[in-house]
């Protein structure tokens, strides 16, 4: 059986983290392998989230039936056959997130005990191998570097004082404040053809916005090739030029996990296949299935690798105004309009950057200087008014 031409729902976002277009590869003699169970996640002391999904044929246009995955029983067990924690269906905005299960209680790892993930879907039972929790060293530093091409790298450094932990995986959450190139004192209302005055203290102003994202790559590091268990300035994120992240203030929360050698090589194998052109899965299923098995049917393939570890986090803020690069707004020329012509400005994608009075006119006449809307309205750059709770300034 070969699974070259199948990818799992949700597996791209968490296990594969692939953002590239994938060219379907269809070898001869492929049998139907749609519906393979995919298990993603880690057993953590706090914040355990398990995602269940199934593979679907890459050229199908219909959604795979997820109903069975919304009624699974997901538990963390120890090697004494004790149930340590029960994962419940994740609910977001009062709606069930299909296939996603979270442990809402703290798990306390007992020294010398091993842990596994047990899953029951209908009459079938699945279980990962029992694994010993891996200790995660602290993050020594998160650093960054600006380059002449106006890009920026974010790097992480860590070490294990006891010299035992050599394999790591990382994930991150990033948030950034977007400031428009110009503060617009007025927002044009095309429906009523009127001006709405705004101020910087107005919670709905179009000058301050925020955006966020999460890591979409498999981020791995190893120190086994060195005499000391040290990882120095491992790049985990590159921010390319002409990016709204360079607007004002940027923050990244780095999550670090110590993992076992076998898990490292499993995820490294997956990572290499993502980077190869033409297909996701190059090796046979036996090479990529990981440590999860179907107890009800040992011949049934399951994709995924479960580890037990501790999550260590660190956050930094970066003042992006220190990057002496080109203006990422690229606003171009400014245009002047009378009030009567503001509707034409609006339908041509322009917003008001500032207003002045034409002193050459006997009567007071306002001239509205307009720029591309993306330069006067931060929401046009993908921002929202959802300010993070931890944000360190008082911008609205």
Overall helicity: under 10%
Distance between the termini: 56 Å
- Give the count of helical stretches: 4
Largest sheet: 10 strands, mixed
Describe the structure.
This protein is mainly β and 396 residues long. It has a domain at 6-133 and 262-309. 8% of the residues lie in helices and 40% in strands. The chain contains four helices and 25 strands. The protein has helices at 11-16, 261-275, 285-288, 342-347; strands spanning 6-8, 37-41, 43-44, 49-57, 73-78, 83-92, 95-102, 115-121, 124-128, 139-146, 152-159, 167-179, 186-189, 194-197, 208-214, 219-222, 230-239, 249-258, 292-294, 302-303, 308-309, 311-319, 335-337, 350-357, 366-372. Strands 1, 2, 4, 5, 6, 7, 8, 9, 19 and 20 form a ten-stranded mixed sheet that branches. Strands 12, 15, 16, 18 and 22 form a five-stranded antiparallel sheet that branches. Strand 5 and strand 6 (83-92) form a beta hairpin. It is elongated.
SSE layout:
Layout: E1 6-8, H1 11-16, E2 37-41, E3 43-44, E4 49-57, E5 73-78, E6 83-92, E7 95-102, E8 115-121, E9 124-128, E10 139-146, E11 152-159, E12 167-179, E13 186-189, E14 194-197, E15 208-214, E16 219-222, E17 230-239, E18 249-258, H2 261-275, H3 285-288, E19 292-294, E20 302-303, E21 308-309, E22 311-319, E23 335-337, H4 342-347, E24 350-357, E25 366-372
Parallel strand pairs: 2-20, 3-21
Antiparallel strand pairs: 1-4, 2-4, 4-7, 5-6, 5-8, 6-7, 8-9, 9-19, 10-11, 11-17, 12-15, 12-16, 12-18, 13-14, 18-22, 23-25, 24-25
